[in-house]
Design goal:
With 104 residues, this protein is mainly β. The chain has one helix and seven strands. It has a single domain, classed as SH3 type barrels, CATH 2.30.30. Strands 1, 2, 3, 4, 5, 6 and 7 form a seven-stranded antiparallel sheet that branches. The radius of gyration is 13 Å and the shape is globular.
Length: 104
């Protein structure tokens, strides 16, 4: 599993609104049994979110909000097969984590 790999959301109850999670954890920590992940939520035209905190990330042609404030560890074994890798969009994800950590 590689940093910025995207996986189907392993939570069956949340897949309608949050179909994917992206691994934001460094590959240097692959020995850990968990992966730090950020949920990727379906865009809702009526919902207004701060783009610095929730940047738009494209996965397989679908535009999704990355919910940095919901970043959490998941068991690595629950992430079955990567469906995409969004390393080209890494700067938006890292910037959103910076907002969570430092407020800027």
């Amino acid at each position: 599993m590689t940093q910025y790999d995207v996986f189907a959301n392993p939570s069956g109850s949340a897949t309608a609104g949050i179909p994917y999670v992206v691994v934001v954890q460094s590959d240097l920590l692959n020995g850990l049994p968990t992966r730090l992940t950020m949920p990727l939520a379906v865009l809702d035209a009526l919902t207004k979110v701060p783009t610095a905190l929730c940047p738009v990330i494209t996965v397989q042609g679908q535009r999704l909000y990355a919910l940095a404030h919901y970043t959490a560890p998941l068991p690595a074994k629950s992430l079955k097969r990567a469906v995409d890798n969004v390393a080209a969009q890494a700067s938006a994800l890292v910037s959103a984590l910076d907002v969570v950590l430092s407020g800027v």
